[in-house]
Amino acid sequence: MGDTGSIVVGVDGSNHTVAAARWAAAVAARSGDTLHLVHVMSSVDQALMTIITPEREDAGSAPRELGHEVLDRTADAVRADFPELSIVRTLSQRPIEDLLTELSRQARLVVLACADVSPLGALVVGSTTVTVARHSHCPVVAWRGDASAPNPAPIVVGIDETREPHACLMTALGLADQLGVPLIVVHALSPRRAPGDINIPILVDYEELEHEALQRLSSAVAPVAGHWPRVDVRCAVGTGNASRVILDHADGAQFVVVGNRGRGSLASAILGSTGLSLLHHSSVPVIVCPTPAASDEAHSVQGVSPNTTAARQ
């Protein structure tokens, strides 16, 4: 997580977005961040209000009044839980994706209520959550469920062994440290073998392959996790589809952290096949981390060994 101090939440007045704002407020209260509530008036809303109330000279102000009511109602719900929390409100006519992407430059998190995102729907129609997650400069929380505040359950982060794990891992470690919860670092082994390897399933020692992968994963995680010595970190490896392996470990977790890049499929052109699948199937909130810049990808974090427990799953 970064050093800036705001958590941005997109709200539309629905109970689901109010619940997401309450969850974000609980996180902001723990970290000392400002909660930034954002509501966007659509051009359709403005046109309808102007048509419905043509006799009013200030008919155009009606959508603004409704927008302020949405923000006020959400802020009141948040203040009932956290009366001392600093809250900023923004009412805008800009496209929500553009506004949230711009605000993400100075935010710690962007939070959006998200029931689910079907892969086909995201490809054909598009989704605010997918679009913002793709372009955001900070992690994006696709919030779902009924938890109004963080809980003692662990955080799960999915790591791709072929790429620098630092962006997702540092986000997950920072949140785990802030919330005082364990972190499970998960890596999925593909059941498909590389060219030249043995491909007969009965001859493949998956247990040994997972053991070797677990050792590599633990070695990669240790230097980064050493900067958060209070976090109880456990590494886990499984064989199969990456999203399915992560979901298996996410059962009982409070949220999942994943990167926004995939491997060349149509879905990954938008977000990443694993991230898109988690957005669709996960029953807990999913935090999508932005792709780091090339300079960040090359950066290697050095530190002392953390309290890391390696567990074969």
Structure description:
The protein has 313 residues and is an alpha/beta fold. The chain has helices at 15-31, 43-52, 61-81, 96-103, 119-124, 128-135, 166-179, 206-225, 242-250, 266-270, 273-281, 294-297; strands at 6-10, 34-40, 87-92, 109-113, 140-143, 155-158, 183-189, 233-239, 255-259, 286-289, 308-310. Helix 1 (15-31) crosses helix 3 (61-81) and helix 9 packs parallel to helix 11. It starts with 5 loop residues before the first strand and ends with a strand. 43% of the residues are buried. Mean pLDDT is 79; it is low at 121-125, 262-270 and 294-313.
Question: Secondary-structure map with pairings?
Answer:
Blueprint: E1 6-10, H1 15-31, E2 34-40, H2 43-52, H3 61-81, E3 87-92, H4 96-103, E4 109-113, H5 119-124, H6 128-135, E5 140-143, E6 155-158, H7 166-179, E7 183-189, H8 206-225, E8 233-239, H9 242-250, E9 255-259, H10 266-270, H11 273-281, E10 286-289, H12 294-297, E11 308-310
Parallel strand pairs: 1-2, 1-4, 2-3, 4-5, 6-7, 6-9, 7-8, 8-11, 9-10
Antiparallel strand pairs: 5-10
